[in-house]
Amino acid sequence: MALIHWHHNAETRYPFGERSPDPDRFEPIGFPAPWPDRPWIFGVMVASANDVVAWKRAGPDDDPVRAVLGGDDTRPERIADRRHMRHLRCFGDVGIGAQTLRAQPDLVQTPQEPGEEPVPELYDFRLAHGLPYHPRAVIYSLFGRLDVAHPVFNTPGLDVMVVGTPVAEATLTARGAREKGVAFVTEHVIDPEALRRAHARLFADHGVRYLACEGGETILRALHAAGVLDEVFVTVTDAVIDESAHEDVLRIVDFDADGAQLVAEGATSPDSAWRFRRWRFNAR
Ligand SMILES: NC(=O)c1ccc[n+]([C@@H]2O[C@H](COP(=O)([O-])OP(=O)(O)OC[C@H]3O[C@@H](n4cnc5c(N)ncnc54)[C@H](OP(=O)(O)O)[C@@H]3O)[C@@H](O)[C@H]2O)c1
């Protein structure tokens, strides 16, 4: 059964209504209200059983995300995780670090990704809650080294905003991003206070209320350092990664050591080794 059953779920607030977009596929997910001056920001990540999320890719066939998810795409856990990620794209807008986009250039973070089966129930959910059809894509970048031919910059109806430095804005402008309709929220974001200010501007100037940041680990850590990473949904799979076989291994934040609270945990069945967890940093 590819449904995540959430147990000991401590979040019972539902600004988006208590009804699931499709009860056969999703239990409802609640969120607190956004902050008065910035969005509620949640990470969405998948980690191996030994906490690995990525490493430096040795070549085009070296895909850490696939390895962490394990081989078979048809397992119930794999299906549930894919749906869970799409579901979490239904509450507001989405975010991604530039390095992830370079590693996965075809990534388009919509409830129905290109080539996938239609999910009208997810789009109905967005529209019923006054949200635009597609989530807006927030791309984080320091240097703007991105190819504006990537599908995310060329998907009709999908607006892109770059949260980055003046250098990122200049580089992407020179590459034709403005002609693609890209908006810039430019601050010296290497400074945590400036990254925080950029999110206040996303809230005040662009109406961003909920932001699902799908990694990678570098940008999640930058958000955490700025105090704006409110919680993280992490799927812990059954894959065990041999860390000695890879370079520059990145591990998920140590939630316990960082004082996060486990607000919900779920599984697809009692005998599944996969765990769907929700760790909260900022109480509201
Ligand atoms: N396991 C998972 O769930 C998961 C999720 C996502 C990605 N991944 C994998 O993780 C790898 C990429 O992750 P990563 O951690 O290396 O990189 P990342 O977080 O995707 O992106 C890092 C980039 O973000 C920009 N950046 C850094 N600090 C910033 C700040 N303070 N403000 C604004 N922008 C900032 C920089 O962009 P510029 O380089 O443009 O200057 C930096 O290179 C890939 O292999 C990807 O497939 C795994």
Describe the structure.
- There is one protein chain.
- This protein is of the alpha/beta class.
- The protein has one domain (5-9, 35-55, 63-109, 119-280): Dihydrofolate Reductase, subunit A.
- The protein has 7 helices and 12 strands.
- The protein has helices at 64-69, 76-87, 98-103, 120-128, 166-174, 192-206, 217-225, and strands at 5-7, 40-47, 52-56, 93-97, 137-141, 160-164, 183-186, 210-213, 231-236, 247-251, 261-267, 275-280.
- A 10-stranded mixed beta sheet has the order 1-11-12-9-2-8-4-5-6-7, sandwiched between helices. The chain has a two-stranded antiparallel ribbon with strand order 3-10.
- β11 (261-267) and β12 (275-280) form a beta hairpin.
- The longest helix has 15 residues, at 192-206.
- It is globular.
- The mean pLDDT is 96.
- Bound molecules: NADP nicotinamide-adenine-dinucleotide phosphate.
- NADP nicotinamide-adenine-dinucleotide phosphate (NAP) is lined by residues 45-46, 53-54, 57, 64-65, 68, 97-100, 103-104, 140-145, 163-164, 189-190, 195, 214-219, 222, 250.
